[in-house]
C-alpha cells in the first residue's frame, strides 16, 4: 500500500511549515530584536552621560587644585576667611570658593577650595596645608649677595 501523497506534493510544492517562518514568528523575532536595540541605546546614553560627568569632575578638581596651589605658593600666608573668584579652564568658567582656616600653629593654615561648575553643583574640592614660611638661612644669604656683586 502506498502512502497518501497530496496533489501539491506531486507538483513539487512543499508544505507551508517547511517553506520558512510564519508571520507570527517574524513579528516575535522583530519584537525581541527591537528590545535589544532599545537596551543598547539606553546603555550608550548612560555611558555618554557618565563620561560627561567624569570630564566635568576631573576639570573641576584640577581647577580646585590650581587655586589651592596658588594660595600655598604665594609670597605670604593668605588671610584667614573666605574668598571667591572665577577661573576659565577647558573653555568653561568655574566659580571657586576658598576658605583659609587656622590650625594649632599660627604659622600654618589649612586651605580648602570648592569649585562649582556651570550646573551650580560643587564638582571639585581640594584641601592643602600651607607650611610656615622659612626664615632665610644667614649662611646662604651673604654668599648670594657676594656672588651678585662679583659679577
TrEMBL record:
The keyword Transmembrane helix applies. Residues 122-151 are annotated as: Disordered. Cleaved by prepilin peptidase. Component of the type II secretion system required for the energy-dependent secretion of extracellular factors such as proteases and toxins from the periplasm. The keyword Glycoprotein does not apply. Coiled coil: none annotated. The lineage of its organism: Bacteria, Pseudomonadati, Pseudomonadota, Alphaproteobacteria, Sphingomonadales. It is a single-pass membrane protein. Keywords: Cell inner membrane, Cell membrane, Membrane, Methylation, Transmembrane, Transmembrane helix. It is found in: Cell inner membrane. PROSITE patterns: PROKAR_NTER_METHYL. GO terms for biological process: protein secretion by the type II secretion system. GO terms for cellular component: plasma membrane; type II protein secretion system complex. Belongs to the GSP I family. It comes from the Bacteria. It holds the Pfam family T2SSI. The gene is gspI. The chain crosses the membrane at residues 20-41. It comes from Sphingomonas oligophenolica. Residues 138-151 have a biased composition (Low complexity). Type II secretion is composed of four main components: the outer membrane complex, the inner membrane complex, the cytoplasmic secretion ATPase and the periplasm-spanning pseudopilus. Residues 54-121 form the Type II secretion system protein GspI C-terminal domain. Gene3D superfamilies: GSPII I/J protein-like. This is Type II secretion system protein I.
Amino acid at each position: 500500500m502506498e502512502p497518501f501523497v497530496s496533489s501539491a506534493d506531486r507538483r513539487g510544492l512543499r508544505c507551508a511549515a517547511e517553506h520558512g517562518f510564519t508571520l507570527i514568528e517574524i513579528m516575535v523575532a522583530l519584537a525581541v530584536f527591537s528590545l535589544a536595540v532599545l537596551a543598547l541605546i539606553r546603555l550608550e546614553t548612560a555611558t555618554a552621560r557618565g563620561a560627561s560627568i567624569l570630564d566635568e569632575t576631573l576639570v573641576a578638581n584640577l581647577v580646585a587644585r590650581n587655586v589651592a596651589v596658588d594660595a600655598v605658593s604665594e609670597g605670604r600666608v593668605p588671610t584667614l576667611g573666605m574668598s571667591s573668584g572665577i577661573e576659565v579652564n577647558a573653555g568653561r568658567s568655574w566659580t571657586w570658593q576658598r576658605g583659609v582656616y587656622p590650625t594649632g600653629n599660627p604659622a600654618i593654615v589649612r586651605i580648602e577650595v570648592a569649585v562649582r561648575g556651570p550646573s551650580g553643583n560643587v564638582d571639585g574640592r581640594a584641601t592643602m596645608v600651607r607650611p610656615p614660611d622659612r626664615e632665610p638661612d644667614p649662611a646662604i644669604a651673604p654668599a648670594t649677595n657676594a656672588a651678585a656683586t662679583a659679577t
